[in-house]
Design a protein that fits this description.
- This protein is mostly helical and 374 residues long.
- It has one domain (3-112, 203-366).
- Strands 2-8-7 form a three-stranded antiparallel sheet. It has a two-stranded antiparallel ribbon with strand order 1-9. The chain has a two-stranded parallel sheet with strand order 3-6.
- The protein is globular, with a radius of gyration of 22 Å.
- 64% of the residues lie in helices and 10% in strands.
- GO terms for molecular function: aspartic endopeptidase activity, intramembrane cleaving.
- It is a multi-pass membrane protein.
- This is Histocompatibility (minor) 13.
- The chain crosses the membrane at residues 42-64, 84-102, 108-126, 193-211, 218-242, 262-286, 298-321, 327-345.
- Pfam families: Peptidase_A22B.
Length: 374
């Protein structure tokens, strides 16, 4: 949800959730004088596009099976049409609230609290992301003990599960590795550590945030389309928040990597909102493809290519007009329009909009239904 911006040491617009922008470290005087080479710029933007595609692709694949999980930590959160309609309002309030906080309170202390908050969230997100990969890498003969963290409310027949988290030894190894990355990020704020957390947040968002139908996706993307354009072009609130907010809510890649190596500091940036929001819609279309039982992934690949086109168009327009651009201004029409056109051509538009994602009931809901039957 946000914009992309070009130019050294130019403050970039940001959303409270996630923004996309291209800026530099304003606190670094040498970076302010740095002019990116065409090679450095191409490498930076190419890397950002690639990093954006990875969590969308793999998050969408993982979203197909996530709803079947019995582990509360792996079960998706379903976004309804009411949630989608309220989301831009909540996001706007959050953005303006952050703006007021940074105006009233010390930026240093607020960012310290945010660092601790994202330190914990980042460790959990990265651990969850690594878990399937670790299951394939670690030796099969490694002792793998099972653990369960169970938190309930009440007793007897009225007992309700609040948290039911199952994990094993391999999950603990993932947690240990993620903790090392977390400490690295808190101490150094290094861009590589930032990207590891950012990729984990994005992949988890695409995997675990499910739209219940295409209409809900259109409501969400349409509302955030207006939100993005308004806050980027209509006010300076995003600029103020972007200059003050320090958190791994964006992917970054240095444009001066070829000249300065890993110590580079002139960053091109892409906000996670411009990955997650279109990503959950693309993941929904993949699940729709699966429901058709035709062994094709037409709508998934169409929307995936549309995302690449929209992101590329954003970068092109930004460089052509030398002005910040709200990325969702281009991503939303592309990601929604292309699959709709394909559905019209294939005669499946009605079927697409009638598709309703069924989700398994939680233990609490199952108990309620059982009580009703009795």
């Amino acid at each position: 949800m946000a914009d992309m911006e070009q130019g050294p040491a130019v403050p970039a617009e940001a959303s409270p959730l996630l923004e996309s922008l291209n800026a530099t470290d304003a606190g670094n005087a040498s970076a302010a004088r740095f002019v990116a080479t065409p090679e450095g710029t191409a490498l930076a933007y190419g890397s950002l596009v690639l990093m954006a595609l990875l969590p969308i692709f793999f998050g969408a694949l993982r979203s197909v099976s996530s709803s079947k999980s019995k582990n509360s930590s792996d079960m998706p959160e379903t976004i309804t049409s009411r949630d989608a309609a309220r989301f831009p309002i909540i996001a706007s309030c959050t953005l303006f609230g952050l703006y007021l906080f940074f105006k009233i309170f010390s930026q240093e202390y607020i960012n310290l609290l945010l660092s601790m908050y994202f330190f914990v969230l980042g460790i959990l997100a990265l651990s969850h992301t690594m878990s399937p990969f670790m299951n394939r890498v670690l030796p099969a003969n490694l002792p793998n003990k099972q653990y369960q963290l169970l938190f309930t409310q009440g007793s007897g027949e009225s007992k309700e599960e609040i948290v039911n988290y199952e994990f094993d030894t391999k999950d603990l190894i993932c947690l240990g590795i993620s903790s090392v990355v977390g400490v690295w990020y808190v101490i150094k704020k290094h861009w590589v550590a930032n990207n590891l957390f950012g990729l984990a947040f994005a992949l988890n968002g695409v995997e675990l945030l499910h739209l219940n139908n295409v209409s809900t996706g259109c409501i969400l993307l349409g509302g955030l389309f207006v939100y993005d354009v308004f806050w980027v072009f209509g006010t300076n609130v995003m600029v103020t928040v972007a200059k003050s907010f320090e958190a791994p809510i964006k992917l970054v890649f240095p444009q001066d990597l070829l000249e300065r190596g890993l110590s580079a500091s002139n960053f091109a940036m892409l906000g996670l909102g411009d990955i997650v929001i279109p990503g959950i819609f693309i993941a929904l279309l993949l699940r729709f493809d699966v429901s058709l039982k035709k062994n094709t992934r037409t709508y998934f690949y169409t929307s995936f290519l549309a995302y690449i086109f929209g992101l590329g168009l954003t970068i092109f327009v930004m460089h052509t007009f030398k002005h910040a651009q709200p990325a969702l201004l281009y991503l939303v029409p592309a990601c929604v329009g292309f699959p709709v056109v394909v559905a019209l051509v294939k005669g499946e538009l009605t079927e697409m909009f009638r598709y309703e994602e069924s989700s398994e009931m939680s233990p609490k809901e199952e108990k309620t239904e059982t009580d009703k039957e009795k």
